[in-house]
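Incident log, support desk, overnight shift.

02:14 A customer reports that sequence design results differ from what the structure should imply. Their input is reproduced verbatim below. On-call engineer (initials T.W.) acknowledged and began investigating.
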């Protein structure tokens, strides 16, 4: 329990200050009427202050039916009061902070050993994390001169996830086509045979091709092409200048969330990156879909964050072995920057730019080394990925 300072209203300061001034003036001028008025004001202020004393016994707890909701949905928050004392608790007023808003609660009286609860329906129009609580018990005087608050519970976090669209159909396209394909990189052990070469010290003798060795008179070993393993990288730009407004940024977050969640559910090797300040990137958790959505709940535009080109260079420098890189950004990003981003990645990497442009007509435009899809509505993402997988 934490007791907050007493808050005196403007009326309270008027009564207190007016009482002191009137009393002093009455004593100085010898006016009995002013003295009576001053004493009456001070007595009123004192009585109101005494009514704020004391505390409400009992334990309060906040419970949320679902601590992870989608933006636009609602959450039901319950505040329970338990009375472990032998006396009945009277009804009282309480306040529940919900982010920057305050919800008022009327808590009924509680019999000894009993428990009551009150519920609040919390609207979640926007993505983010809402801090619920702690519950504050409010004591007021009848005249509204002052109020006193006492915190009676712990706080809870409510995660508001970005909206997503199901990509179950689209997920069978790009990544599955890449899985198991041979690359141009040579290796000494894999499944895709490429050619024969002369044996050098250190080669695995199990790869000696004995028939060719017998024909040439020197040891010949098999050379293989490295099989491609699908590794999806979703890179979300958080540079404020990339977006025309908040709606555009929210659409970009939903695009990244939809792809990342589908990849995690399909057990695809995936990395989800978000640019952060000072030319850095943050790797979001992909352990479970919920972990990824929790991390995306707190992503916001960051001044000084790297844009798509710098994100691509960071991916190339990290040596992550990405096979598909999806660059998610806003409509303010120039096409030349997306082409520069594609040029920074190895030529064998499939690069796709996903541009959030609310209410724009969906389109796919191929450029050198990159295909750029403009997404006007979240549902356009499914059709765009299916079309790109088919070409």
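02:41 Re-run completed on a clean worker. Output:
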């Amino acid at each position: 329990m934490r007791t907050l300072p007493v808050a005196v209203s403007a009326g309270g300061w008027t009564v207190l200050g007016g009482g002191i001034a009137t009393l002093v003036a009455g004593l100085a001028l010898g006016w009995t009427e002013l003295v009576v008025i001053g004493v009456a004001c001070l007595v009123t202020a004192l009585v109101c202050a005494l009514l704020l004393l004391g505390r409400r016994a009992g334990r309060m707890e906040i419970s949320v039916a679902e601590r992870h909701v989608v933006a636009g949905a609602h959450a039901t928050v319950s505040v329970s009061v338990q009375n472990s004392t032998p006396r009945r608790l009277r009804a009282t007023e309480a306040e529940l902070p919900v982010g920057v808003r305050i919800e008022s609660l009327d808590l009924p009286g509680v019999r000894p050993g009993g428990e009551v609860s009150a519920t609040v329906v919390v609207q979640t129009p926007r993505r983010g994390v809402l801090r619920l609580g702690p519950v504050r018990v409010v004591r007021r005087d009848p005249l509204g001169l002052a109020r006193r608050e006492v915190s009676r519970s712990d706080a809870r976090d409510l995660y508001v996830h970005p909206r997503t669209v199901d990509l179950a159909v689209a997920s069978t396209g790009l990544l599955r086509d890449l899985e198991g394909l041979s690359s141009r990189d040579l290796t000494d052990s894999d499944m895709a045979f490429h050619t024969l070469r002369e044996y050098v010290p250190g080669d695995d003798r199990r790869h000696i091709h004995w028939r060719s060795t017998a024909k040439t008179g020197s040891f010949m070993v098999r050379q293989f092409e490295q099989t491609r393993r699908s590794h999806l990288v979703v890179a979300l730009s958080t540079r404020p200048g990339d977006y025309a407004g908040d709606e555009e940024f929210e659409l970009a977050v939903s695009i990244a969330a939809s792809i990342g969640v589908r990849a995690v559910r399909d057990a695809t090797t995936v990395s989800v990156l978000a640019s952060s300040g000072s030319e850095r990137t943050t790797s979001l958790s992909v352990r479970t879909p919920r972990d990824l959505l929790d991390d995306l709940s707190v992503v916001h535009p960051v001044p000084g964050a790297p844009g798509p080109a710098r994100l691509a260079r960071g991916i190339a420098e990290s040596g992550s072995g990405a096979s598909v890189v999806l660059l998610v950004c806003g409509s303010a990003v120039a096409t030349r920057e997306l082409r520069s981003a594609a040029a920074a990645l190895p030529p064998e990497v499939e690069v796709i730019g996903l541009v959030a442009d609310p209410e724009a007509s969906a389109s796919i435009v191929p450029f050198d080394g990159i295909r750029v899809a403009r997404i006007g509505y979240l549902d356009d993402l499914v059709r765009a990925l299916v079309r790109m997988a088919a070409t």
